[in-house]
Amino acid sequence: MVDRQSILVVEDDASIMELVRFNLRQAGFDSVAAGSGEEALRFVAKSGVGLVILDIMLPGMDGLAVCRVLKSDVVSRAIPVIIVSARGEEADVVRGLELGAEDYITKPFSPRVLVARVKAVLRRSGVGVLDEQEPMTIEDVMIHPGKRELRVGGAAIEVTATEFDILHYLARRRGWVFTRSQLVSAMHGPDYPVTDRSIDVVIAGLRKKLGAGGDWIETVRGVGYRFRDSSSD
């Protein structure tokens, strides 16, 4: 099952943008669009996205500068970036990859190849290709999204719908750091009227209900929250 979190397409050519978004929709992905680098960075800062498809030749800030900003920020650095550009020289490709892009595709490109590359990048990054209804167990914490069931040490734990959704979202993306606004957008969509304080209250209640398992949800000071990646212990 494809993750419905949006893919951001950053492209100033309207025809290319619509071609890319059409093929993403056909493959089961949601997408949003930005026509400039500045607009793309504002959207990521406000809402967060699952992956960025990024043109280099943009009005104002170019795609390489956008990639540099994304990969230097503690919140956005984990977002996969695929550069799509008419610049196909080896030096251009190397520069894009050295800035942190996960892939580089030259124009003109096959839409089917682009979609295949998107799926491959999401698969390597560990998001976007997981079955969101598949149960998962982390030590003594069991999350069953299909049944909307949470168990700790075998005992059923009663949680609210929002608590369950946030726990499931973080646990599926272990190690990734999300701001409070990104969590709100993932649960309810952008511009949903929930304050940062409300997210803090939900997290606090969730930790209490999880007991010792609450330690899995870590606060990243000045940023937001993440589900601890056991491989980094």
What features would you describe in this structure?
The chain is of the alpha/beta class. The chain folds into two domains: 7-125, 3-Layer(aba) Sandwich (Rossmann fold); 136-232, Arc Repressor Mutant, subunit A (Orthogonal Bundle). Helices cover 40% and strands 19% of the residues. It is built from eight helices and twelve strands. It has helices at residues 14-26, 37-47, 63-72, 90-98, 111-125, 161-172, 180-188, 196-210; strands at 7-10, 31-34, 51-55, 81-85, 103-106, 136-138, 141-144, 149-152, 155-156, 178-179, 217-220, 224-227. The strands form three sheets. The chain has a five-stranded parallel sheet, sandwiched between helices. Strands 6-7-8-9 form a four-stranded antiparallel sheet, with no helix packed on it. A three-stranded antiparallel sheet has the order 10-12-11. A hairpin with a 4-residue loop joins strand 7 and strand 8 (149-152). Helix 1 (14-26) crosses helix 5 (111-125) and helix 2 packs parallel to helix 3 (63-72). The longest helix is centred in the middle third of the chain and has 15 residues, at 111-125. The protein is elongated. The chain starts with 6 loop residues before the first strand and ends in a 6-residue tail after the last strand.
